[in-house]
Design brief:
Length: 142
């Protein structure tokens, strides 16, 4: 059972990280997991019509943050201490991005998670290859 459910996590993010909504919306959470969707719009595109790296990194970051909070509870000062992302292929033009995040390890001071980004509304469920993969480390305040 997650420490925070979907509604509690959405309420927490709205109060403590309202700017996070520009990076996507939470669709589901579980113990140490989170799925987010970014409705790609013109603000997320770079020249040539590709989704920008910063937009994908923001989605990945917030998705892992949400997955972490399902394990540690409402800790607003947990912060990213490392983000490594591999861009694997160009996302589909005009398609949503889906982030599928999970925590790999959660300790007292650090949480390590990974996230796969998929392009297209049902891409993650349809077995489509990811467009990016990221690993993140979060520092958890004492």
């Amino acid at each position: 059972m997650p420490v925070l459910d979907l509604q509690q996590l959405n309420d927490f993010l709205a109060e403590h990280f309202p700017q996070g909504e520009q990076y996507g919306a939470l669709e589901s959470v579980g113990p140490g997991t989170a799925v987010m969707r970014l409705a790609v719009s013109a603000q997320h595109l770079r020249p040539g019509g590709s989704v920008s790296g910063p937009a994908m990194m923001g989605l990945a970051d917030v998705a892992v943050y949400a997955a972490l909070l399902t394990r540690i509870g409402p800790v607003p000062l947990a912060v990213t201490s490392n983000l490594n992302i591999n861009f694997l292929r160009k996302p589909l033009a005009g398609a949503d991005l889906i982030a599928d995040a999970r925590m790999l390890k959660v300790g007292r001071m650090l949480g390590v998670g990974e996230v796969y980004l998929y392009s297209g509304a049902d891409a993650a469920r349809a077995g489509t290859d990811p467009v990016a993969h990221a690993t993140l480390t979060y520092a958890i305040p004492q």
